[in-house]
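Exercise: predict the structure of this protein bound to magnesium ion.
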Amino acid sequence: MKYRAFLIKYGEIGVKGKNRFLFENMLMTQIRHALKPVEGAFEVTKEQGRIYVLVVSEDYDYSGTVEALKCVFGIVGFCPLLQVPDEGFDRLAETVVDYLTQAHPKKNFTFKVNARRARKNYPMDSMEINAELGGRILDAFPEASVDVHDPELVVCVEIREQINIYSENIPGPGGMPVGSNGKGMLLLSGGIDSPVAGYMIAKRGVSLEATYFHAPPYTSERAKQKVVDLARIVARYSGPIRLNIVNFTDIQLYIYEKCPHEELTIIMRRYMMKLAEHFAAESGCLGLITGESIGQVASQTMHSLAATNDVCTMPVYRPLIGFDKQEIVTVSEQIGTYETSIQPFEDCCTIFVAKHPVTKPHLEHIRKSETHLDEKIDELMQTAIDTVEILTVEAE
Ligand code: ATP
Ligand code: MG
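Solution:
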């Protein structure tokens, strides 16, 4: 079956009133963006409150199109569509039978016809079309049967200027179109969690920027490339990601030199948050996003999270906070980041970890330890800011 159009179905929640128009336009922008790397030419149009993707090139990559649409937040489902001109009911019935023959090899299906008339000058009403078309389908497929309650196939026929015929609904990812809800700064490491956290926040319509802290020469070029690769996968869903790559080595060494080793991770995390917040504020982000989950490691107990959070003035969004590791892994497999995340490259946090990190840090102790950094830390922070490397990462 060669489809030349797709009907895009999107959620109705939050799409009422004047927001509807904005929501639809953002969704259309995201669809265009997602289809850019797909072979073929497409037009994304809005018509009578419906969004369609029309194929305007001779050939195109059908499965590439389906895969791209599955990544666009805001799409609840989409239907590959046959669009035909109105040439009378007999011709329509032939087309539907022909369509079913090609689209569904199984001949003993159960079905119902779901006709809708958006154009009231069509000579039959919806009930008549349902009954008459149902009869023609039964004539053509003697092994098929009607089941109005739980059919395998719902044959949808919409009488508009053109006639739309479809029966397949491919699930989309749901959520809200990216761009409809501001921008957030993702602290992106090479691990399993943070790419999933970015995905989940982007799903709510938030555009992403990201910050990665590396510690050359303790962390390798490969470790950095892994983070770029992860950002590229997340960008399939979120759109392009501006990635700030911060050289954290001197700060990390300085903390290592001056502070109690059991507090290293917490203090490091506090400086990461501060720097990420600096870049976030500069580029208009409204919050920070991390992959933290309560109790996952020593630096993510309730006490440790409170100590880390203490330095932030922006809201910190932690979408995985109540997830078990296995639940996070499941999402990362679904979104395609898992295989990249488990590549074994050292992370800057793991290099300087203490044998026995504090699990219940006292905020007062931490703040006191940080006074040991007074001499040079501002200068080191400024250097880290001045030497940031910025990449714009797009999906392939
Ligand atoms: P991930 O959480 O991505 O799997 P991880 O579990 O090794 O990696 P943690 O040490 O648990 O990372 O850090 C918790 C969170 O802090 C991460 O989810 C991430 O948001 C942020 N983070 C940690 N290390 C870095 C880093 N090197 N660069 C940027 N953000 C980081
Ligand atoms: Mg983690």
